[in-house]
Design goal:
Layout lengths: L3 H15 L1 H6 L2 E8 L3 H12 L2 E8 L1 H10 L11 E4 L2 E5 L3 H10 L5 E4 L18 E6 L5 E7 L4
Parallel strand pairs: 1-2, 4-5
Antiparallel strand pairs: 1-3, 3-4, 5-6, 6-7
């Protein structure tokens, strides 16, 4: 039996429920290319989801992943286990979500950002409380690089 209270409660919730599809579209899309069975890549994608991104993934054979990095001009010295594309920028490796947000907000004249190799404690690579020091590197089409942000070792 429907009471007046239940009907009024449902009516009050209708605007919030109808806004859910619009809220989902506010999540920023990012497409991740990764190798099959890579647990740290999956962990990084899960972190992006928790941080409000809408990641999609594409699993590539290792040779195809290397070819993709070469075709997109990811510098070999900055290469990592996965490559993502967001708003025309490349994100290479275990880059923190805050740096990705800053990249797409600031819109620097660059190809993208990278966390080379796989530093322990970077997102998806172990607990941040045990993090080793690492830099996020901005890389440009003219092959120059600069430090985009720096993460000190956990104490």
């Amino acid at each position: 039996m429907h009471t007046r209270r239940k009907i009024l409660t449902c009516m009050a919730l209708l605007p919030a429920i109808s806004a859910l599809p619009a809220l989902a579209q506010l999540r920023t899309a990012i497409h991740v290319y990764k190798g099959r069975g890579c647990a740290c890549c999956t962990a990084w994608v899960d972190i992006l989801k928790r941080e409000g991104f809408a990641p999609t993934t594409e699993v590539l054979h290792p040779a195809d992943l290397v070819q993709l990095k070469l075709s997109k001009s990811v510098p070999l010295k900055l290469s990592a286990c996965h490559t993502a594309v967001i708003d025309g920028y490349l994100v290479e490796g275990h880059v923190p979500a805050a740096d990705i947000r800053r990249l797409i907000s600031d819109k620097p004249d660059a190809l993208g950002i990278a966390v080379p190799e796989m530093p322990y404690g970077s997102p998806g690579m172990g607990p941040e409380s045990e993090r080793e020091a690492y830099d996020v590197i901005l890389f440009k089409a003219d092959k120059t690089t600069e430090i985009f942000s720096r993460y000190e070792a956990a104490s």
